[in-house]
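Hi all, long-time lurker, first post. I run a small reading group and we've been trying to get comfortable going from sequence to structure in the token notation. Rather than ask abstract questions, I figured I'd post a concrete chain and ask someone more experienced to write out its structure so we can walk through it together at our next meeting. Sequence below, copied exactly:
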Amino acid sequence: MTLSSEQLSIYLEGIQKQIDELNKVIKNGNEKKEVLNSNETNSEEMNKLIEEKEYYKKQYEKSEYRILFLLRKINELEAQMNK
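-- Answer (accepted) --
Happy to help. Here is the structure in token form:
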């Protein structure tokens, strides 16, 4: 089985989308960290921010796994192309 340029482009596009998602997660995490460092944050806001931080952390981990999966798939397909 050979991999067409179109198929490879689809996989690369998927990886780029995951990278973009990771960048958003990192950006949101950094913004929340800045808010947490503010002295004006009350405990209710703090709890909300901690929950949100955990959510973004989980999203980051999911995105990491998706990128690894897509990279493995690309490597498999490239190996098939080189046979």
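A couple of things your group might point at:
Residues 18-81 form one domain.
The two ends are 9 Å apart (CA to CA).
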